[in-house]
Write a structure and sequence with these properties.
This protein is mainly β and 112 residues long. 12% of the residues lie in helices and 46% in strands.
């Protein structure tokens, strides 16, 4: 996925979710040790997988990404909610995401 496509996708999805332009973007490069499983909590956020990796399994509240999963009908690049990253390899690997975080504008929550 190109950076241009990812940025356009995030912009449209945040509009669809009702946040308009009120969100922050972060590039997340997550390093996973051999056979490591890590959980991320991302409710109301979007984690968009930038580079698909064959040794990475991602399970979230909205879908699955695992190139080795033979029973999957569709692989998801967008993840939200509880996200579980699993390195299927016996060597370290990485996962690169574009993360969109809505800005809380009600009550001046301090994250502007």
């Amino acid at each position: 996925m190109t950076a241009e496509l990812a940025l356009d996708y995030i912009k449209r999805r945040m509009q669809e979710m009702g946040y308009g332009k009120e969100y922050l973007l972060r590039f997340r490069h997550i390093l996973l040790r051999e056979s490591e499983t890590r959980e991320l909590t991302a409710y109301n956020q979007i984690f968009l997988l930038i580079d698909p990796i064959s040794t990475l399994r991602i399970e979230s509240d909205v879908g699955l990404f695992d190139l080795s999963e033979v029973s999957a009908n569709e692989l998801q690049y967008e993840h939200r909610g509880r996200i579980t990253l699993t390195n299927l390899s016996l060597s370290p690997t990485n996962a690169r995401f574009l993360q969109a975080i809505p800005i809380n504008t009600e009550g001046h929550a301090g994250n502007k």
